[in-house]
Amino acid sequence: MSGADTDAILDSYRSHAADLGQRFREVDADEFLAPVMAHIPEGPLRILDLGAGSGRDAAWFAARGHSVVAVEPVVELSAQAASLATGDRIEWITDALPDLASLDGRDGEFDLLWLCAVWHHLDPAMRVRTLERAAALVKPGGRLIVSLRRSADVDGRLTFEAEPEPAIAQARAAGFVLVDQQSASSAQTHNKMAEISWCWLVFDFPGDLA
Ligand SMILES: C[S@@+](CC[C@H](N)C(=O)[O-])C[C@H]1O[C@@H](n2cnc3c(N)ncnc32)[C@H](O)[C@@H]1O
Predict the structure, then answer these.
(1) What is the number of domains present in the chain?
(2) Atom 9 in ligand 1: which residue has the minimum CA distance?
(3) How far apart are CA 203 and CA 18, in angstroms?
(4) For a designed S-S bond to 55, which of 33, 74, 81, 190 qualifies (C-beta 3.0 to 4.6 A apart)?
């Protein structure tokens, strides 16, 4: 994928930020997170939310006492999180996958890496690099939770196939161990109508503990 492709994806989010940010936030987080709720460890955790959008999940984590670093390249989306009452538990960073240069020097900081509804915007090479960065940033003994969009994007944003098997193989090559895989229907009204489905993948990162 070229830099121009990434720019086109992010420009599309920028152009529709008001509408999309609201759509992301109107999803009931408890219902949405149900398939992986049992895999979110007791806290308080240090969580890295990658492609955090308008902050729905970051706010949910913060409200439960976790501290979150939320990375989002589209400030028109992240700025909307200012309206969420999250105290000072969320640090927002404007940056993009796969390199996450802003997080240099923070290796091994995070108990949980959260990559929700972003994988389909990354091409295979970006995914490899993303997983390398994830393996550096997660603590040994930490966890990575990823949701994969199983259907093409009906809104015209550039997407790539997001099948679980290659994602699992790429994650394994980066040192992650699959602990669960769950299918889910869409929680967003707009996507429900388009019959978009999701696959959640939960990985442990044994790291030095292996
Ligand atoms: C479908 S939205 C999901 C937002 C949020 N995770 C949620 O579930 O509500 C996809 C998000 O991925 C972000 N994104 C797209 N390409 C990205 C990249 N290369 N690095 C980081 N985020 C990216 C978009 O800006 C957008 O916020």
Answers:
(1) 1
(2) 24
(3) 33
(4) 81
**Which of 94, 121, 130 has the most ligand 1 atoms within 8 A of CB, as the residue to mutate?**
121
Regarding the beta carbon of 114 and ligand 1, being less than 6 Å apart is answered no
The 10s digit of each residue's pLDDT in 154-202 is 567 778 889 999 999 999 999 999 999 999 877 666 665 566 789 999 9
Rounded Cα distance, 164 and 192, in Å: 20
> What is the layout of strands, in order, in the sheet containing 110-116?
90-93, 67-71, 46-50, 110-116, 138-149, 197-205, 177-185
- Ligand 1, atom 22, lies closest to the CA of 51
* pTM of the shown model: 0.94
- CATH number of the domain within which 142 lies: 3.40.50.150
Reported as a single tens digit per residue, the pLDDT across 101-110 is: 999 999 999 9
In a domain, 1, yes or no: no
Domain assignment of residue 111, yes or no: yes
Instruction: Strands of the chain (E only): list them.
Output: 46-50, 67-71, 90-93, 110-116, 138-149, 177-185, 197-205
The residue whose CA is least distant from atom 7 of ligand 1 is 53
What residues make up the domain containing 64?
Answer: 6-209
* Residue 155 covered by a domain: yes
Beta bridge partners of 91: 69
Residue 162 covered by a domain = yes
Q: Is the beta carbon of 121 within 6 A of some atom in ligand 1? A: yes
- Residue 24 CA: nearest ligand 1 atom is 9
